[in-house]
Amino acid sequence: MTTRAPIVDRLTALVPSFLLIIALLLVWELGVGFGWIKAFLFPPPSEILDAFASMFTEGFPLGLTLLNHLGATMPRVIQGYLFAAAVAIPLGLVVGQFAVLRDATQPAVTFFRSIAVISLLPISLAMFGPGELARIALIAYAAFWIIFTNTIEGARRIPVDLLRAGKALGANGLRLYLNVALPATLPKIFSGLKVALGVSWVVIVAVELIGTQAGVGALISNAQRLYRTDIVIVGMIVIGVIGYLLTLALDKLEAWLLPWAASENRLEGAR
After folding, report:
1. Is the Cβ–Cβ distance between 205 and 220 less than 8 Å?
2. Of all residues in the chain, what percent carry a pLDDT higher than 70?
3. d(CA 181, CA 22)
4. Which residues does 145 contact at the CB level (< 8 Å), separation at least 6?
5. Mean pLDDT across the chain, nearest whole number?
6. Which residues, in sequence order, are CB contacts of 244 under 8 Å at separation 6+?
7. pLDDT value at 71 more than 80
8. Is 149 within 8 Å of 192 (Cβ atoms)?
């Protein structure tokens, strides 16, 4: 009974949100039907649902189904994102521990973070060619700075007494970073990972506008060029749903690795 109660409470809390969504969809459908909303700008939900179904059977464009597009986009995002995390986290841990390194790298970090990633597309194409590597590199670039700066901030805030206690217990060098510094920095790292994930999806949509027919960004671009607003909205919904699910997975991983941090977040939310 105690196990089921929280589940029932969560489902009950979602009821108003579902009702609101249904009401909005109904108003949207009726608005198009009565001519209050222009269908070529905002196709009715029923038309979008038909377009979504057709993306699994007929595909768009050139017979590329939604699974084909996702099969092209997901590896690009995952490879760029994981590469950025693999480099940014250990580097941020080292830089964050030393004020000299933080001060030395701060101007460069501020400069490179300020550059719009899409403006680097010509440079990336010139360096890596028009293939997959150019797109993956831009995703990695965008995600790196976010994860890097969050890791630095987390490492900077590690209590000195905690590091001293770790050294007193025999943790030195790599063991000190793995067993003391990394766990203490994980809350800030996860914050950076979540933000970087959202930015990675923004970047992939932009970089897939050029030089490819396969990918969710290419799907949206081609649909927009051919005035298929229904398919544009399908692409937007797919990006939103996948982004939400990936963020939810990160939340679950954080709660599993850092149960104490999840408890603190719930207490802060209750306040």
Report:
1. yes
2. 82
3. 47
4. 88, 109, 112, 113
5. 79
6. none
7. yes
8. yes
| Closest by Cα among 21, 65, 67 to 45 | 21
Residue 212, classed as helix, strand or coil, is: coil
Amino acid at 201: W
Model confidence, pTM: 0.78
Q: Taking a C-beta distance cutoff of 8 angstroms, is the pair 147, 63 a contact?
A: no
State both tokens at 81.
């994102």
Identify which of 160, 116, 161, 159 has the alpha carbon closest to the alpha carbon of residue 138. 116
Alpha helices in 61-173, H assignment, sequence order: 66-97, 99-114, 121-128, 132-156, 160-168
Q: Which residue has the tokens 């933080």?
A: 102
Residues 237-260 have a mean pLDDT of 82
Q: Please state the separation of Cα 70 from the chain's center in Å.
A: 15
Task: Name which of 207, 205, 244, 216 is nearest 71 in CA terms.
Answer: 216
CATH code for the domain defined by 31-266: 1.10.3720.10
CA separation for the pair 271, 268 (Å, rounded): 5
pLDDT tens digits, one per residue of 170-220: 566 666 666 666 777 788 888 889 899 888 888 888 888 777 778 888 888
For residue 271, the SS3 value is coil
- Per-residue confidence at 9, pLDDT binned at 50, 70, 90? low
CA pair distance 35, 22, nearest whole angstrom: 20
**What are the boundaries of each domain within the chain?**
31-266
The enclosing H or E element of 178 equals none
Helices 66-97 and 182-207 cross at an angle (nearest 10°) of 140
Place of tokens 């939103």: 240
